[in-house]
Amino acid sequence: MKGGGSNGWMVDGPNVEIVAAYSRDHDRNIGAGTLTAKIGAARIVMHRIVDMHPVLLQRFIANALLWLTART
After folding, report:
1. CA distance 70 to 72
2. Which CA distances in Å does 42 have to 37, 38, 39, 68, 69?
3. Are 22 and 33 in contact (CB under 8 A)?
4. Closest CA to 62 of 50, 40, 48, 45
5. What is the pLDDT confidence band of residue 56, given thresholds at 50, 70 and 90?
6. What's the chain's Rg over C-alpha atoms?
7. Distance (Å, rounded) from C-alpha 67 to C-alpha 69?
8. Could you tell me the residue ranges of all domains in the chain?
9. Are the C-beta atoms of 54 and 47 separated by less than 8 Å?
């Protein structure tokens, strides 16, 4: 997956959930900034939003770790 500073990833597939999405103001395509996926029993979190405030990034990481380690 390729992404730049002002666009998210274009993703689709089974067990993929887009948590945050964004795009350039002149582009109709909206790409994922943060996504989760499940492949079998494995959980994946991908995040590409750059320049987040450190407090927000710390909260994101804490929430991602909770989700990744939760038993379902």
Report:
1. 6
2. 8, 6, 5, 9, 10
3. yes
4. 45
5. very high
6. 13
7. 6
8. 16-69
9. no
